Predict the structure.
Amino acid sequence: MEKGLKLTDILVTIIIALIFGIIYKLWGPLYGVISTLGLHVEQLIYGMWFIAAVVAYLIIRKPGVALLAEVAAAQGEFIFGGEWGVATLIFGLGQGLAAELIFAAFRYQRFDMIVASLAGVASALASLGIDFYYGYIGDLALWNLLILFGTRIAGGILISGIFAHLLVKALEKTGVTNLVRPASQEDYKALG
Amino acid sequence: MSTVANVKNMRLKFPGVDSLLFKDFSLSLKKGEKVLILGPSGSGKSTLLQVLTGLIPHAVEVPMKTDEINIPDSWGYLFQDPDSQFCMPFVDEEIAFVLENLQIPKEEMNRYIHHYLHQVGLAFKNPHTKIQTLSGGMKQRLAIASVLALEPEVLFLDEPTAMLDSEGTKQVWDTIKQVGEDKTVVIVEHKIEEVVDFVDRVVLLDEQGVIIADGSKDDVFASYKQVLLEHGIWYPGVWRDYLNSKPPSPSPSPVSINPSVHLSDFSVYRGKSVKLHIPQANAYPGDWVTIIGENGAGKSTLLLAMMNLLKTKGTCHFLGQDYKRIKNFADHVAFVFQNPEFQFVTNSVYEEAAYSLRLDHWTEEQISPRVNQLLKTYHLENHTHIHPYQLSIGQKRRLSVAASIIKEQSIILLDEPTFGQDAKNTFAILEQLEQLRRQGKTIIMVTHDRNIVEYFSTKVWSIHDGKLANDSSTGEYLESNNHVTGEISYVH
Amino acid sequence: MSIDFSYQETWLHKINPSLKLGFVFLLFIHLIMIHNTNILIYYMFGTLILYLFFTGHPWKRLMIIFLPFLLIFLTSSTSMIFFGKGDVTWFKWGLIHITEESFFRGLHLGFRGIIFAIIGVVFALTTRPVYLFYSFMQQLKLKPKYAYSFMAAIRLIPLMIEEMQTLHYALKVRGVQSGKGIRGFYNKLKSYSIPLLSQSIRKAFRIAVAMEAKRFSNSGNRTYYYQINFSKVDLVFVFYLIAVLTLSYYMAVQYPYFPITDVRL
Ligand SMILES: Nc1ncnc2c1ncn2[C@@H]1O[C@H](COP(=O)(O)OP(=O)(O)OP(=O)(O)O)[C@@H](O)[C@H]1O
Ligand SMILES: Nc1ncnc2c1ncn2[C@@H]1O[C@H](COP(=O)(O)OP(=O)(O)OP(=O)(O)O)[C@@H](O)[C@H]1O
Ligand SMILES: [Mg+2]
Ligand SMILES: [Mg+2]
């Protein structure tokens, strides 16, 4: 096997990322509308912005995919005219790196809902870290800041952990994942 | 002669499939040979080409091992699926992509682009044209042009003309013959009439992917006729033999006075413009209508419109009712898309076939025998649990036909249901449709195959340039067109 | 998204894409360091001029794109206005606590959000993805493997819309009737999204194989069909930005809207 990502891996990762890039873009106005409700309810859906990394990784299961997917999705959102401009790219990089670190910590051997949720939490923390410089969130009243933290992390778990995992399970049923994942050792053994 | 490619004792197995597709398979190709690979649909021809080019396992990971494998230094591959081989959106960019890969300097690219387009007989005012807007035949020729741009020593061609009209088929083959003169050419093709005189070696595969004959074309066609017949593979004269063995009984012409399909002053729109107009056309129970016409004439457009999928004006009546008012439309009319992948909605071959029955609330005990029997007729019984997309192209086509007609609706519309099929399966499909027709169903079918028009249909609708040019019985049609379209008469 | 909308080509389209992105990035970093709302407001006018007059897109489209910007203003500012820390209380009701500091900080965030949005959209509206990635390869040495993957994937997106149509046809032809209400909606969502996603992955995979069949490789040099270079327009762009910046600083001092010059305090 060749080292690193093959062309097929990269192209598949990027198409997944761009599809979510479109969703990211559409998510902007939705987020805007919900946030008028106040009290950071909108943070519950913030987790959608971490999903590309998790879904791509769960499908392809190779190192580097999560980071690439999240950066590409952010790039997609940006070139589709996302409301946050280049800031998106920075968030994408941070969130992608965070998710990638989680998968690496498990040596790219685990693909279950818990790992996915952990990646969601890591991405949420990364985005909060960036927001500290970018959105002055350190200047929010403490109770408000805590709600922000709590809802965003919960959203990360819900959407990029649980939902992403269910989505990939549904995709597995269509057989498409066999196409991109490495073949198993048993299959090679069966060649005799 | 030196060897340009070979494999020795190849074993190959698709992940998740129990049996090996190839077991100790060996083949070697000599420089300058023109080889035709023949075999039943699903025997592994496309897979074999991908192995010989190294695409398997380098680009597509499929478990395989060989004692020895040599792939050619320079090769070009024309894929079986016409729409999946373009890498760029515009004609010029597509060829430039290849030139870039070969590190041709930018200044020379335009010259090369014109050269290759000219070579395949494509003329554009401006080659910066969207590929999507080309007709099927033009797309296929563009694909050949970009393969030629690789300046390959070895050409691998996987059914380059499956969906082309007779004109396009001839043009494409003329091009290939001309540019392939001094190259090694490996061809997989079911429609062999046009290529037989070009090839010199024929390799025969059976259903298990085992080579059962390999030799000069004359030898193989002369001494293996029985084998070809047994495995249902096309050979020159197969139609004649088929008709001799099963002479079509004179079909009773329909007696009903009420047409099951009635079109009048029927216009079909794509966007704001009228793409197709049918002044008047009728079909009766027991009719088998073939719709014919060149690539891009509007045949598929007509079927899509009759399925109420496009914007239309005018009258279209099914079984005496306005088609837009029919409740549970799918209970009365079946449809097979031109691209089989378009109609798959489930995740396995079995489920796909059973789908309509499930919607109809059949019980499992009723479904199972019916589905199994149909899958057997179409030689899909060994693939019941894989995803429809993993089938070979011919298998996909058969599944789409099987899944659509399983309910035996009274009107059946089919868009080129026999492309990419071996002889056995073509006749299986045709015989099944014939049986349905005899039960009084109405079959309406798009085809480029004149033999089907001649020997199976009762009626011909010919479409020319977005207009119904002719609605007449097959007899009349053949009579009036014999001298004009004498181009293909395989049988005589 | 300059994929399939027609537009007039303007000087903004002719700027070298890498350079354009580079400057957009610099602007971004610089903007984060501006804490004076007055500068931001003048700055915003400078970018609005580009958006309104030089993208080459029709007015109607520009207006529609602008609508969500107002939401951005709200989302970026409201939490800070209502719940931010501050000493000079203007209004207090339950949890809501508007202070002078939080109000201006919120306003500042709002304006900044809008400027990011405008710059980003100006970039998106005036950059053809194909040129962008060619430029990335030529100026930023992005590996062709990634650049071409992006180009191929972007091309697949409009095809997905067709795909959705096809899927709709397939379900209709096969006689599917999705139920009504929430359940029906959920079923519908599922019967579209999963096949669409798996379809796109398959398509992408096939294109990757086709690319390899055309001898696409990452190693060695390649030549380029499109050569993206620098030109005088790039200078114009840079000068415009410098002019806008200098003017904003100058005007903010001479004609401030608000007395506050640093919202962090
Ligand atoms: N990804 C896959 N997973 C499982 N089975 C596969 C896969 N791809 C192909 N097959 C099976 O391998 C066999 C050979 O397929 P291949 O496409 O090579 O056939 P073919 O001879 O080209 O047929 P056709 O004439 O219909 O194109 C088929 O039975 C097919 O179902
Ligand atoms: N989605 C579409 N939008 C606009 N025009 C289309 C579309 N699909 C097809 N056309 C055009 O409509 C005309 C008829 O196309 P159609 O697909 O019906 O041809 P056909 O007779 O089925 O050809 P073929 O033998 O290649 O299948 C062509 O000129 C084609 O370019
Ligand atoms: Mg094949
Ligand atoms: Mg057609």
In short: Residues 177 and 183 of chain A are 11 Å apart (CA to CA). The helical segments of chain A are 7-35, 51-60, 65-79, 87-105, 113-134, 142-173, 176-180, 185-189. Chain A touches chain C through 58 residues (CB under 8 Å). The two ends of chain A are 19 Å apart (CA to CA).
